Amino acid sequence: MFTFATDYFLLVFVSALGVIQIGASFGGLSGLLFLQAPKAARALGTVLAVAPFIWFFAVGERNINDYQGGLDAPTQALFFFLGTLAAGGVTFVVSSAVNWRMDRGAPAPEDGMDALRNASWARALAASLQYWRKNWRRRTKQYFSG
């Protein structure tokens, strides 16, 4: 079916999606949620975080040395990084599509992550980029003039 590395990548990817959903629901960052109800998002996140581990260890032998087909540490770290990076990207895209109509006021540039309480990731990013495009000279002048 898949190689050991692919299975590990899928484990990390889906689990990271679940952990992001759980964290966003507890943090009140509704702009990152796939489901608007926080309890439903936590339940989905829990399933997404736990189910891949059950699947990963149920489909075959996983205690494999790296010279017998397992993953050595650098490769494992690379697949972990790529899995979490992909989970973050998918979260941004899916949550922006799901929450596109969410508009509880324009996010302020200084809001940072708190902007995701009232807007989708795409809207918060667009507002921040628009602000910095208009104000970058004024905001950076103190660092470059004598």
Protein traits:
single chain; 146 residues; 4 helices; flat; mainly alpha
Span between termini: 63 Å
What structural category arises from helix and sheet content? mainly alpha
What share of residues are in beta strands? under 5%
Task: Work out the radius of gyration.
Answer: 20 Å
Query: What ranges have pLDDT less than 50 throughout 5 or more consecutive residues?
Result: none
Molecular shape: flat
Helix content: 55-70%
Largest sheet: none
The helix-strand sequence is HHHH
Q: What is the total tally of β strands?
A: 0
List the total number of helices.
4
What features would you describe in this structure?
The chain is mainly alpha-helical and about 150 residues long. The protein has one domain. Helix content is about 65%, strand content about 0%. It is built from 4 helices and no strands. Helix 1 packs across helix 3. The chain is flat. The N and C termini lie far apart (about 65 Å). The model has no long low-confidence stretch (mean pLDDT about 90).
What's a quick, concise take on this entry?
The chain is mainly alpha-helical and 146 residues long. The protein has 4 helices and no strands. The protein has one domain.
Annotate the secondary structure layout.
Blueprint lengths: L3 H24 L10 H21 L14 H26 L22 H24 L2
Helix pairs in contact: 1-2, 1-3
